[in-house]
Amino acid sequence: MKSIRPGVLAASLFLSAAVVLAAPNEKSYTPAQTAAESKRVNEFFDKCFDENVARHPQFASSLGIKKDYDKWEDLSDSSNAEDLAISLQNLATLKRDFDFNSLDPQTQLSWRLFEQDVQTNAEGFRFRFHNYPVNQMFGWHSSTPTFLINIHRIDSVSDAEAYIARLNGVAKQAEQVIANLQTRAEKGIIPPRFAFPLVLDACRKVTVGRPFDASENDSTLLADFTKKVTALKDLDQPTRDRLIGDAIDALTASFRPAYQKIIAFLEEQEKTAPAEAGAWQFPDGRNFYEFALRRTTTTNLSADEIHELGLKEIARIHGEMGKIKEKVGFKGDLQAMFKFMRSDPQFYLPDTEEGRAEYLSRATKMIDTMRGRLDELFLTKPKADIVVKAVEKFREKSAGKAFYQQPAPDGSRPGMFYVNLADMKSTPTYELEALAYHEGIPGHHMQIAIAQELTGLPKFRKFGTRFTAYSEGWGLYTEQIPKEMGLYQDSYSDFGRLAMELWRAGRLVVDTGLHHKRWTRQQAIDYLIKNTPNAEDDCVEAINRYIVSPSQATAYKIGMIKILDLREKAKKELGAKFDLRQFHDVVLTSGPVPMDILEELVDRWLKSRAEG
After folding, report:
1. CA distance 351 to 451
2. Which tens digit of pLDDT belongs to each residue from 418-444?
3. b/e for 274-298, b at 16 or more Cβ within 10 A?
4. I need a labelling partner for 93 at 20 to 30 A (CA). Which of 59, 83, 84, 431 fits?
5. For 107-117, what is each residue's pLDDT tens digit?
6. Hey, how many other C-beta atoms are within 10 angstroms of the C-beta on 449?
7. Helix, strand counts (H, E) of the chain
8. Alpha carbons within 13 A on the beta-carbon side of 568
């Protein structure tokens, strides 16, 4: 890919003035003093992280920590305010008790990331209600059962009792969710009308099966609990029966009423839901969307600049697709080929359990093949394993097309590449290869698992910080790497790679169209249908997603372009000495960082190579 136009992205990299930390009358430090001070600061960072984990039991569980294993997060606004106050106090302590100039470069970077994270959260706090905590893509209604199924391990009787306590504790969280939705409604922030049937369907599916009805089949949660308890070794039958009985009681007495309250509230709110949506409708919506774009892309690119970038990238990718169209001998224009790709049976597996199993098998084989070639691309490789899973039935309608769930740091849970196989017509095989690389290897699994396994970094950099442009930019970048390795041998798979890149370029156009240019939902849907080979249902679902997550979709292409720009810069400066494996090490072995800091890391590496 060609470098992005000079001055557009590089000149707009977001670097808060508050993190420019040069100090007057800098004191000099010996290497021993620098090492000691760096150690002391990292201990402070870990103390802050551990205290944050202690306040958030679900986050702790996701890290494999069983402290407060029977509790849920506090979802109240007062808890959010308390979190911000604590983080601001921690930042003040950092600046008061430590000297930035006494630290080694890696710890200085940690300082900057810590400060930038706190300041971004503080800046965005006034926009904390500018979102939909329950929507068709994600939210409390679907994350609660997903958390219990995928995160809450049962290795003992006490773990099982903690699971039951969490079932009973759902009622309080449901009340907090309703209160949060009411607060937003009072500010005029109500989810768009299209979201309600999908959310309500997901809510109702959670409470289908025993003990919620007379079905012969267990509900998703009862089946999960029973399976986990049954797998416990040396557990006598009376104790097993008691635990399952207690779980049934909790599901019927606490869990079901909580979901019934949520359903009743949403059914009532649906009556006043707006037909159209966009961040521009929010209070102070323009400033919110500008902030969201800065936070998501870690650049200062304006909505108009991002929109124009998307249009240019779409034109370029259409040209690349045209070359493949000629190569395969397709007669007709690109629009005709899009229609062919949407409808020809050769590109779709049967909409049966056998077809779904075949899809998962092919995705696993793609990942296994790439795993065998990692030495060509990487010096650092993750220890954590990865598995490919179909999205659970209860959340198929509300879940995205594909996504990655990180492994547990202690190795007790592998990374998971989820694919939504509810409708096999929405998962064409020509996109399978690129999708497996993006979500699995060398994509998100490499990036996230490596970050978690890094040594010598404070915990917040391994488990706490998230920069969407970095992570999703890496994911999209890794769809291209296999092409450079000689993979995508099938022309239609290569077309699928371009189709997925085209999809991300289209996001730049429609996200800014919806939230800045005040496009209608249908206008955005029509744009994707016209300019991509994706099925109409895909386009509808995508626009629904972008509506409820302003700015998130812009991260992929902007992050990818920046990584490619930096790689081209390194190639140009190093010439024959350029080593792709070393470049990837630079990108991955500092954990997630904003785009401006990633450029600094690459520049530092280039300088060291020049001096060495």
Report:
1. 37
2. 999 999 988 999 999 999 999 999 999
3. eebbbbbebeebeebbbbbbbbbbb
4. 59
5. 999 999 999 99
6. 23
7. 24, 3
8. 10
